Each structure stands twice: as structure tokens, then as C-alpha cells.
């Protein structure tokens, strides 16, 4: 248990933040997993748009860093573009 008031408050705010971020992270991870599991290029291209939006939203809300969102989008786009049609 925290020994200082500021540490106790930090624990409370961290718990609130984690609870707020958990659904966003779950949605983001699920969308990425679905995209990576796509078998044809048409489905993957449609999924890429949804994943990009989800990643941008998570970055805008501060759940993940904007550079991480950009890096993930780039790698996923590369994966989709390398798929055979």
C-alpha cells in the first residue's frame, strides 16, 4: 500500500486510465488479428481501412503513441500489399 497521499492518488488515476484504455486496446488488437488472418486481398484491404481508423483513434486518445500507430499501419499496409490477389 502507498505510504503517501500522492502515491495513493497515482494508484487511483492509473486504475482509471487502465480501465479507460482496456476496451480501446482490446478493439485495436482484435482488429489487427482479424486483418492478419485475412486470406484474400479484397477482405484485407477493407480491413486495413478499419484498422487504420482504430489505430488513429487510439493514438488521438493517448492510448498508444502516434509513432506506434503509424508504424503498425505501415507494416500492415505492407503485408496487405504483398498478398496475392
Q: In summary, what is this structure?
A:
The protein has helices at 5-36, 41-60, 66-82. By secondary structure, the chain is mainly α. Helix 2 (41-60) runs antiparallel to helix 3 (66-82).
Structure commentary:
The protein has a single domain, classed as Methane Monooxygenase Hydroxylase, Chain G, domain 1, CATH 1.20.58. The protein contains three helices and no strands. The protein has helices at residues 5-36, 41-60, 66-82. It starts with a helix and ends with a helix.
At CATH level 2, the architecture is: Up-down Bundle
Q: What is the mean predicted local confidence, pLDDT?
A: 95
Our count of helices gives 3
Percent range for helical residues?
over 70%
Assembly state: single chain
The CATH class label is Mainly Alpha
Give a quick set of tags describing it:
85 residues; mainly alpha; Methane Monooxygenase Hydroxylase, Chain G, domain 1; elongated
Indicate the topology.
Blueprint: H1 5-36, H2 41-60, H3 66-82
Amino acid at each position: 500500500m502507498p505510504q503517501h497521499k500522492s502515491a495513493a492518488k497515482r494508484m487511483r488515476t492509473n486504475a482509471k486510465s487502465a480501465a479507460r484504455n482496456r476496451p480501446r486496446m482490446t478493439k485495436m488488437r482484435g482488429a489487427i488479428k482479424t486483418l492478419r488472418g485475412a486470406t484474400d486481398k479484397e477482405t484485407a484491404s477493407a480491413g486495413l481501412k478499419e484498422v487504420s481508423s482504430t489505430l488513429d483513434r487510439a493514438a488521438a486518445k493517448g492510448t498508444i503513441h502516434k509513432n506506434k500507430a503509424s508504424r503498425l499501419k505501415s507494416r500492415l499496409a505492407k503485408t496487405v500489399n504483398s498478398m496475392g490477389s
